[in-house]
Design brief:
The structure holds two protein chains of two kinds.
Chain A: H1 2-18, H2 22-33, H3 38-44, H4 54-90, H5 109-123, E1 127-128, E2 134-136, H6 137-140, H7 151-155, E3 165-167, H8 172-181, E4 186-195, E5 207-217, H9 222-237, E6 243-250, E7 253-262, E8 279-288, H10 290-295, E9 304-311, H11 312-320, H12 327-330, H13 333-336
Parallel strand pairs in A: 1-4
Antiparallel strand pairs in A: 2-3, 4-5, 5-9, 6-7, 7-8, 8-9
Chain B: E1 2-4, H1 5-11, H2 19-28, E2 32-38, E3 44-56, E4 64-69, E5 76-80, E6 90-101, E7 109-111, E8 115-117, E9 120-122, E10 124-126, H3 160-163, E11 169-174, H4 185-196, E12 210-213, E13 219-222, E14 228-237, H5 246-254, H6 262-274, E15 279-282, E16 290-295, E17 300-303, E18 309-312, E19 317-320, E20 325-328, E21 332-333, E22 346-353, H7 355-365, H8 370-375, H9 381-398, E23 402-405, E24 408-410, E25 418-421, H10 424-431, H11 437-444, E26 450-452, E27 457-460, H12 470-481, H13 502-516, E28 520-521, E29 527-528, H14 532-535, E30 560-561, H15 566-578, E31 584-594, E32 605-615, H16 620-634, E33 639-643, E34 650-660, E35 663-671, H17 673-678, E36 685-691, H18 692-698, E37 714-723, H19 728-738, E38 743-752, E39 761-770, H20 779-795, E40 799-800
Parallel strand pairs in B: 12-23, 13-16, 28-31
Antiparallel strand pairs in B: 1-11, 2-11, 3-4, 3-6, 4-5, 6-7, 6-10, 8-9, 14-22, 14-23, 14-24, 15-22, 16-19, 17-18, 19-20, 20-21, 25-27, 26-27, 29-30, 31-32, 32-36, 33-34, 34-35, 35-36, 37-39, 37-40, 38-39
Helix pairs in contact in B: 1-4, 5-6, 6-9, 10-12, 13-16, 13-18, 19-20
Classes of the chains: A alpha+beta, B alpha+beta.
């Protein structure tokens, strides 16, 4: 019996050692330890063993089983590890192959610039207000200190529907509408589409966008305007941006200014983008003209305010170095996908 | 406004700075410079030399050897190919090391070195007027071709560049429309003097005229005093037409104005100097010795001095004599009264016409002249007499004629200086500064703004029509105090909360959904051609054709405000198609303009439309899925896609209205192949248009948590045979209606027609999920529900498939 077990163990261990596959190991397991296995058969022969020898033989059987199981387990895990390694080796990929992209769409560059502007001003406590694109002459001109036959009306090359209704040439009428409601203080920006009869070319379009801002409150000063726009410029174009105010003229503001910022490409040393001057004209602004306040029912002796207007396309073209405005309205996906 | 610095210095002689300092400071005081041109940028070392001897070149027929005296001890030998020079001529000599303008060269200049021409040494070059970088027509005395020849008085060795008035810088300033006074040398010089705090020497005009009185030669009547504020006429006899003096010619040349003769040059000169256009008539052509200023007659024509026939109507102001029209006021004179070389008596006009009228007439006539450009800005009527007297002074000074005594001056309503209250504390309050009253007054003085202590106001001269109120004075203070020096502060007072309106927030979410689904944002114009309605296949009575028409469009293609966003989208898709872009997906958020009635009496309804369009990949259901995703994210519930044939521009069998309850909030479908072909797209195009005002109203961001199911679901698959014309939407309605309280979801997993399904039928299969939140469902709870569903489906002639 003892010899039989020894022989069986030896045979088993030898076969285990020689096994090269998990299936073979499993077969070995079945053939020795399975229900019809050799060890089980021996165990069945226990009834023939004398009573006093049974504990010792039982122990021997158990030891044999344990030895076979341990060998099986060891060899199985060894084989598994080997197989895993082989699999991993097979699974090596070329990580430099291109990634598979989810085909996301893209926002229009104008929209990206607009949202960036909105973010800055909303952060500064401004409300975003919209208004009609087809507008009354009254809001677009008259209330803004541009009376009938004012040369500025020609300068802006207005599209008219009839003598009273036109396509707004600026988003300032939205400001007039808000001022007219008389809720103080006012801190708002009015983004939107505006129209002027410009022939289409690389730098002109009959339809473009403006973002105009307005602050009206007691004691608003030109120095507040300077501070506000400087803060805006630094948040929008970078903290090292410098701002230059040049006197200018707009009918709806007095005093008025045009604002240049240090060129964001060269930082002010002069490059092609700023035509060597180091400065880029970015917006027009000024203190709301007392006539405008009066026209909107606000007492200019009590309140004052400032307004500014940014050409969205101008910012977009500069920011992305786009050299032809027409690209903005063609909607070629090869263009749109760049932003 | 072009201003040669030399001319400005005639009034501000103490001006002393570099060109860069000049333009920078002027810009900061309100005269924004556009650019400047150094007239001598490409010229150097050119002196006046006299040709002493000319010999033939021994080895070249076309070359000659000149010995030239340039005022130094030794003569200079120059070999020249010029044919127009003779011994004794004084010519410009470019010395070795100097340079001339060369329009052929990239650098626009040519350097002159000493060298040998066919073996003979040459130490420089003679040059012509164009080699100074000047246009020949500005120097009428220059020969047609070849070397410029100075007159005999020219100093040998003198700087030829300076002598020709080319040692100058012409600065172009951008003048804003409120500063009419700055469209003149004198106006600009006043600004320069104030900016640099240097004395301003305004010309002092001598009294002119003698002998007979002008009023005996001419009478003036203004019929339309609204359109002509003032008319000054003077008469000059014994006109001697001759070239104007060199100094005047040089100044005009620097301005790019071609010298013609003394009379024309004087009127041009005064126009530049004072900003007042003048006109000269040959008095012998003026019938009845009468000038009448009145509007023209409708449907008449008038021949201007350029020989062109112009259509006149009753809005155009005309200058007439006793019998006929002789000029279009403020714009151009007539051929019938123009000054010719044979003139003997001159009628000089200096008038003030209404700016708006001139602007409108000039536009209507399509005729813009230097004069109309000045008048349309609205001139100061007091300028008319000043300019007239200056012109007469120049006529006398130049000996161009005999100025008669006095002027005929019709000036119905004299413009007086106005007073604007001077409130220094308010000015400081507006600017956020603390500038003293005295300092402010010091800024005003050089601008000729006088302080009237008695009334505490500023007396504003009539040439500054732009100054009307405190804010205007504040700007004058600010620009001379320096915008740079104004402090930088932030608004104080109540804080406000920045925010985006719901409309924009909803639009932003829509954009995100669009982009996550591969749609790129486009932007198209709001106006389009009325032809698009035909292109889209709209019927004659379609409401879309009731579009707002622009009265002055850029052209027919941009003449109506869009009532549908389709054309913009299809045009953009077509652009992509033509450029062979594949699998294109675009969206646009833009308004359409729906008039309540035409012609427009009130503002139209501007409705923001979300328009999606695609071709090349995906179908109706791809796009429908995007729309559903959008509704899901925006919390727009109870949407239905109703099959319809109502959209003529869509495929009749592939279109749906998108409804919420009974309201149409949009539509979706395949573009009708006829329509997409008209746009040149040979592929299936799908579009969906959603009405954003509706969507914004329906959007609901309120979400409540539903506990995550703990008990298993029970699934039942139903496979059915359905008549082809029954829509799955109807089946879903039955399932939902009869699904009972445990119905969790239904999912369509197969639609099939073809083999194994009988003709006229389709096979439709659903997987229906039931779940209870508090227990595991038993078959006995589900079976009755399924039976009910089957029974209800039976009513639609739907049978289960075994």
């Amino acid at each position: 019996m003892k010899e039989k077990l020894e022989a069986l163990k030896e045979n088993a261990l030898k076969r285990i050692e020689e096994a090269k596959e998990l299936d073979v190991l499993n077969d070995i397991k079945v053939s020795f330890l399975g229900k019809k296995g050799e060890l089980t058969a021996i165990l069945k022969g226990m009834k023939d063993v004398s009573k006093e020898d049974r504990p010792a033989v039982g122990q021997l059987v158990n030891d044999t089983r344990a030895a076979i199981e341990a060998a099986l387990e060891k060899e199985t895990s060894k084989l598994q590890k080997k197989l895993r390694e082989e699999k991993l080796k097979r699974e090596v990929i070329d990580v430099t192959l291109p990634g598979e992209k989810v085909k996301m769409g893209h926002r229009h560059p104008n929209q990206i610039a607009l949202e960036a502007l909105e973010e800055v001003f909303v952060g500064m406590g401004y409300e975003v207000v919209e208004g009609p694109e087809v507008e009354y002459d009254k809001y677009n001109f008259e209330m803004l200190n541009i009376p009938a036959n004012h040369p500025a009306k020609d300068e802006q090359d207005t599209f008219y529907i009839n003598s009273e209704i036109l396509l707004r040439t600026q988003t300032s009428p939205v400001q007039a509408r808000v001022m007219e409601q008389g809720k103080m203080p006012i801190r708002m920006i009015a983004p939107g589409r505006v129209f002027r009869s410009n022939e289409v070319d690389a730098t002109h379009s009959p339809s473009f966008h403006q973002v105009e801002g307005l602050v009206v409150d007691k004691g608003i000063t030109f120095s507040d305007l300077k501070g506000t726009l400087q803060q805006f410029a630094q948040e929008f174009f970078g903290k090292d941006t410098k701002v230059k105010f040049r006197p200018h003229h707009f009918p709806f503001t007095e005093p008025s200014a045009e604002v240049d910022i240090t060129c964001f490409k060269c930082g002010g040393t002069g490059c092609r983008m700023c035509k060597g001057s180091g400065w880029i004209e970015i917006l027009g602004c000024g203190m709301v003209h007392p006539n405008v306040l009066k026209n909107c029912g606000i007492d200019p002796d009590e309140y004052s305010g400032f307004a500014f207007g940014i050409g969205l396309e101008r910012v977009t073209l500069l920011k992305y170095e786009i050299d032809d405005m027409r690209l903005l309205y063609e909607n070629d996906t090869r263009f749109l996908k760049q932003f | 406004m072009n201003t040669p610095i030399s001319w400005i210095k005639a009034y501000v002689p103490d001006l002393d700075c570099t060109t860069q300092e000049y333009v920078d400071k002027m810009t900061l005081s309100g005269s924004n410079f556009e650019c400047y041109e150094e007239l001598n940028a490409h010229c150097d070392k050119i002196v006046v030399g006299q040709i002493k001897t000319i010999e033939k070149h021994p080895d070249a027929d076309k070359l000659r050897i000149c010995q030239v005296d340039i005022g130094e001890s030794e003569l200079l030998q120059i070999v020249t190919a010029a044919t127009n020079v003779n011994e004794g001529d004084k010519v410009p000599v470019v010395l070795a090391g100097g340079k001339v303008f060369d329009k052929e060269s990239d650098t626009k200049e040519m350097k002159i070195k000493k060298g040998k021409l066919r073996g003979v040494e040459s130490f420089g070059m003679f040059c012509g007027i164009e080699e100074f970088g000047a246009a020949k027509e500005l120097y009428p005395e220059a020969p047609e071709d070849g070397v410029y020849i100075f007159d005999e008085g020219a100093q040998l060795g003198a700087d030829a560049i300076e002598l020709l008035g080319r040692k100058d810088v012409v600065v172009e300033f951008e003048i804003t429309s409120n500063r009419v006074d700055c469209f003149s040398m004198i106006g600009m010089a006043r600004e320069v003097a104030a900016t640099f705090k240097k004395p301003f020497h305004k010309p002092v005009i001598k009294e002119t005229g003698s002998g007979e009185a002008a009023k005996d030669y001419i009478s003036v009547e203004i019929k339309d005093t609204n359109l002509c504020k003032r008319y000054v006429a003077r008469v000059v006899k014994d006109i001697k037409i001759a070239p104007s003096p060199v100094w005047m010619q040089r100044r005009l040349a620097a301005m790019g104005i071609r010298p013609i003769n003394n009379i024309v040059d004087i009127t041009n000169y005064v126009m530049e100097e004072y900003g007042q256009p003048m006109h000269a008539f040959d008095l012998s052509t003026v019938e009845d010795n009468k000038i009448i200023v009145k509007t023209g007659e409708d449907n008449t024509t008038f021949t201007t001095l350029d020989g062109q026939e112009r259509n006149i109507d009753s809005s155009v102001l005309m200058i007439c004599d006793g019998k006929k029209e002789i000029a279009i006021a403020g714009i151009m004179g007539g051929e019938n009264s123009m000054v010719t070389d044979n003139i003997s008596t001159l009628l000089l006009e200096s008038a003030c016409f209404d700016g708006t009228n001139i602007r409108l007439s000039s536009k209507k006539l399509g005729l813009r002249t230097d004069a109309s450009g000045k008048f349309e800005k609205g001139l100061d009527p007091n300028l008319a007499m000043e300019a007239m007297n200056r012109a007469c002074e120049l006529i006398e000074e130049l000996g161009a004629g005999t100025v008669l005594q006095g002027a005929v001056d019709v000036y119905p309503e004299k413009r007086e200086p106005k007073k604007v209250p001077f409130e220094p504390e308010k000015i400081n309050g507006l600017l956020g500064t603390n500038i003293s009253k005295e300092e402010m007054l010091a800024y005003f003085k050089p601008l000729e703004l006088e302080y009237d202590e008695a009334t505490e106001s500023i007396i504003v001269p009539t040439f500054r029509q732009d100054l009307e109120c405190m804010a205007d004075l504040a700007e004058e203070v600010a620009r001379f105090y320096g915008y740079d020096n104004i402090p930088v502060t932030l608004p104080k007072g109540e804080t406000t909360v920045g925010k985006l309106p719901l409309k924009i927030r909803v639009e932003n979410i829509a954009r995100n959904i669009m982009e996550q689904n591969g749609f790129n944002q486009g932007m198209t114009y709001s106006f389009e051609s009325p032809k698009v309605f035909d292109k889209l296949g709209f019927g004659e009575d379609a409401k879309e054709r009731k579009a707002i028409v622009i009265s002055n469009p850029l052209g027919e293609d941009y003449s109506v405000m869009r009532t549908t966003s389709l054309n913009g989208m299809l045009t953009s898709l077509a652009t992509n198609y033509n450029r062979r872009n594949k699998a294109v997906r675009l969206y646009e958020l833009g308004n359409v303009y729906i008039p309540e009635a035409l012609p427009l009496t009130k503002l139209p309804d501007e409705r923001m439309k979300l328009t999606m369009g695609m071709f090349g990949a995906g179908d109706f259901f791809t796009l429908k899925g995007v729309v559903e995703e959008l509704f899901d994210k925006l919390g727009v519930a109870n949407t239905e896609f109703m099959a319809t044939r109502g959209y003529v521009f869509l495929h009749p069998g592939r279109q749906a209205s998108i409804m919420v309850k009974d309201v149409v909030i949009g539509y979706i479908g395949q573009v009708h192949p006829e329509v997409s072909e008209r746009y040149g797209i040979e592929e299936e195009v799908y579009i969906a248009v959603l009405d954003m005002p509706h969507i914004t109203e329906l959007a609901d961001f309120d979400r409540k948590f539903t506990p995550i199911a703990k008990f298993p679901a029970t699934k039942r698959d139903l496979s059915m045979v359905v008549k082809q014309d029954i829509l799955v939407g109807e089946i879903e309605k039955v399932l939902k209606k009869n699904g009972g309280k445990f119905l969790e979801s239904i999912e369509l997993f197969d639609v099939y027609q073809g083999e194994q399904v009988k003709e006229g039928y389709k096979s439709v299969a659903y997987s229906i999920t039931f779940r209870a939140s508090d227990h595991t469902l038993e078959d006995s709870e589900i079976n009755p529900v399924i039976d009910k569903i089957v029974a209800e489906l039976g009513k639609l002639d739907i049978e289960l498939r075994m």
